[in-house]
Amino acid sequence: MLALLVSALAQPTPDDLAAALPEARAQLETCATEGCEDAVGARAAWLLAVGTYTETGFADGDLAATVGVLDPLLHEKLPPVVRSAVGEPLAWAVPPSSPAGTAPSQGTWRDLPPVEPQGTLEVRVTDMKGRPIPGAFVRPLEDGDRHRVHSETGRWTTDLLYMADGSQRAIERNRPVRLVVGAPGHRPMVAFAVGKRRKTVLSFELPPMDVPADLQAGMDRWAAAERQAATGGSTEAEAERAREDLASQVVAALRAAPEDSELRDVCLTVADHATCGFLPRLPETRVLGDVDGDALAAAVDAVDVSGCADGLWGYVQLKLMVGPDGTVTRAEPLETSTGLRVGWCVADTVAAQAKLPAPSAGIGVVVHPVVVGHRP
Questions:
Q1: Which structural domains are found in the chain, ordered by start?
Q2: Separation CA 267–CA 218 (nearest Å)
Q3: How far from each other are the two terminal CA atoms of the chain, in whole angstroms?
Q4: In what order do the strands lie in the sheet with 364-372?
Q5: Confidence (pLDDT) at 100
Q6: What is the pTM of this model?
Q7: 20 to 30 A Cα–Cα from 305, which one of 66, 75, 269, 334?
Q8: Burial of 294 by CB count in 10 Å (0-12 exposed, 13-18 middle, 19+ buried)?
Q9: Separation in Å, CA 297 to CA 50, 109, 257, 284, 293
Q10: Is 20 exposed, middle or buried (0-12, 13-18, 19+ CB in 10 A)?
Q11: Which string of b and e fits 237-269 if b means at least 16 CB within 10 Å?
Q12: 3-state secondary structure of 311
């Protein structure tokens, strides 16, 4: 049964998994007490990892790491969120010749050479007033780990990314890094950064996020736990438990309403892009005054702002005032995931180049998100 389900590598049905899980658990117990072939242990761990995630939404990093140790190819067939979960391989799966404590925390078991750093990536995360946010994080999609920013400076700096297979990747000039940036109670942002210098510095100002009423209490608990951890009133482990509790609620709600963009934003903050869908919701376009909003938005989108991107992917929420002749009399960035320097560059470029429909009377005002750079 185990070999049949795994070797097919089709997505087992819930009924198939429910029938196979008792046998998989029993097989893992046998592997722990009596030993077993690598292929047998890997199949059992794979099925139990997939079954647990399907039934409960929990990604078991220990089981994923066990599959990686025993069968690297089978590890690649795990669901992405399970494959990237952090954990240690079960003790019986670690080769006896391996020094204690050298098992990678996730991914496949390989003896990979160290990588020499070639550049530095620094990310600063604040609220819209420039204040650090307790619990703010940076998650490079290449390594999948959630890295906390410094509680006082709001900064996170690295020169290496640690990949799911246990290898390292240096931060290099002209090589892109994809990032998700978030914090409790704040809208997440996705950026596509390409370093142009030896040190690349990115700044993100996160706006408040609308949270569904039935999830607000969980978000408040997580935010409170992060504030206490930042001041020494509790531990980061307690804050992580609050986040994981909220994540299980959010994932269940998103499965029931997969098109809910508000839920997707919350999910991207507490879980990961593989579970939640890749991109956060863009702000809505708002038009004031007697002007053709669709035509005006299309005219703004037609302006080439690629010269402002500087290797980033993200958006700039622009506020534009349109005069009676269709010229932009004022442009300013209200919100940006790419930093204010890029935001003002986009505003100035649109103001100089956009050919907009004129309002029938008076001055029109439009608030519209402009996508900058190329999506990852």
A1: 2-93 (no CATH), 112-281 (2.60.40.1120), 286-372 (3.30.1150)
A2: 12
A3: 40
A4: 286-288, 364-372, 314-322, 328-336
A5: 34
A6: 0.49
A7: 269
A8: exposed
A9: 44, 51, 29, 11, 6
A10: buried
A11: eebbebbeebbbbbbebbeeeeeeeebbbbbbb
A12: coil
Token digits of residue 49: 């990892």
Predicted local distance difference test score (pLDDT) of residue 101 = 34
| Model confidence pLDDT, tens digit, residues 220-250 | 999 999 999 888 887 888 898 999 899 888 8
Q: Which of 100-109, 236-245, 260-269, 295-304 is predicted with the least confidence, judged by mean pLDDT?
A: 100-109
Mean pLDDT of 325-340: 75
* CA proximity to 365, closest of 324, 321, 309: 321
Residue with tokens 């998994």: 17
Cα–Cα distance for residue pair 24/45, rounded to 1 Å: 7
Average pLDDT over residues 23-36: 88
Q: Does residue 46 contact residue 28 with C-beta atoms inside 8 Å?
A: no
> What amino acid occupies position 21?
L
β-partners of residue 332 are 319
Burial class (CB in 10 A: 0-12, 13-18, 19+), 172: middle
What residue type is 38 in one-letter code? D
pLDDT-based confidence at 307, cuts 50/70/90?
A: confident
The DSSP-derived string for 166-213 is: S-EEE--TT-EEEEEEEETTEEEEEEEEE--SSEEEEEEEEPB----H
Reported as a single tens digit per residue, the pLDDT across 74-129 is 776 777 667 766 667 787 887 543 333 333 333 333 344 556 667 888 899 999 99
Query: Could you give the strand order of the β-sheet that contains 186-194, starting from the edge strand earlier in sequence?
Result: 147-148, 137-140, 176-183, 186-194
pLDDT > 90? residue 177: no
Q: Cβ contacts of residue 8 below 8 Å, gap of 6+?
A: none
Q: 3-state class of 224 per DSSP?
A: helix
pLDDT of residue 225: 93
